[in-house]
Each structure stands twice: as C-alpha cells, then as structure tokens.
Design goal:
Elements lengths: L1 H31 L5 H28 L3 H19 L14 H35 L1
Helix pairs in contact: 1-2, 1-4, 2-3, 3-4
Subcellular location: Membrane
Family: Belongs to the cornichon family.
Membrane topology: Multi-pass membrane protein
Length: 137
Amino acid sequence: MVDLFIWLFSFFILVALLVILVFQLICLADLEFDYINPYDSSSRINKAVLPEFILQGFLCLFYLLTGHWVMSLLCAPYLYYNVRLYTRKQHLVDVTEIFNLLHWEKKQRICKLVYVVVLIFFAVFWMIYTALEDVDD
C-alpha cells in the first residue's frame, strides 16, 4: 500500500513538472508571436526555471531513497543536464539574446517535455501494476 502512495506522489510531482514546462513553452510561443515583450517573457521563464530544477532533483532523490532504482536511473540524465546548465550559468534566459535563441530554447523545453511525458507513462504503469498487485494480496 505504501508503494502505491509513493507512485501517486511521484505522479503528482511529474504533473507539476509538466505544468512548469508547458508554462515555459507558452511564454516562448507568446514571445514568438509577439503577444508579449522579451523582458516579461524572460522574467516569467526565469521564475519557473529554479522550481523546475528543484522538483526534478527532488524526484530523482525521492526515487533513489524509496528504492526505485530504475526510475532513479531514468531521471539521472535529466538531472545531469539541469545541473550542467546551472553550473555553467546557462539556465536563465537572457533578455537581450532571447530572440536569437528562441528556436533553441523551444527545442530544449520540448525535449524536456517529451522526457517528462515518458516518465509519467512509466509512473502510471508502475502505479497500476502496484495497485493490481495489492489487490491480489
């Protein structure tokens, strides 16, 4: 039963990550179609970057501490990429360069979005498997 709550908790964390990434993509799309100015767009995106990094790091650590080694290993490349961006100080969007890097920023967030969706599918699979396993016992 505890395992089911672990998967449910990780599912909600993954959904929160998904919402943060979609928010960032919407801000970039608004900037691309000129609905928002570069300063507002970059400040909104920059406010969402650190919570994304913290949530993803917490999720990887959570999987590691609860003994879900495979999911922790699946989260590790995403965590490594975020840590690398943070240590190189490339994690924030620059107001003056946002138009030049718009395509790259969108591509980067779409790749992260696909990665999180795959993790959500794995989490839902294991949540259903655990629920059915608990019913058999």
